[in-house]
């Protein structure tokens, strides 16, 4: 863990989150290498840029706190699939209920694999260090802890 970097990133992240929550930014200015200045004053564009900045700062903070993603994981097809799901879910139009409605249309073997993946995700989250859980995920973490013991004792056969 890079404590100094994590501390600086935490401070910057808190500042950006405050700007985001207070909706207090009315101009973002870019300075080019040739000395030109370009500004964005559109409130929706500013909101989007601050959102992206917060997401990136959170990623950098996680890396400073816990290290980089192991190369063997980052190069796996499971990680790549999870990243594709992340992109889909990061859209405000993503509806979890509609996603769940789509599951019966999967090939039945893939539906089994999906539920094995859900089970593994729940038990993995339940096993995380509680210090790594932020307020956005506290309720999910607590729910996973309640479900984990039941799931660990339940076998999902591969048929």
From TrEMBL:
Name of the protein this chain belongs to: Uncharacterized protein
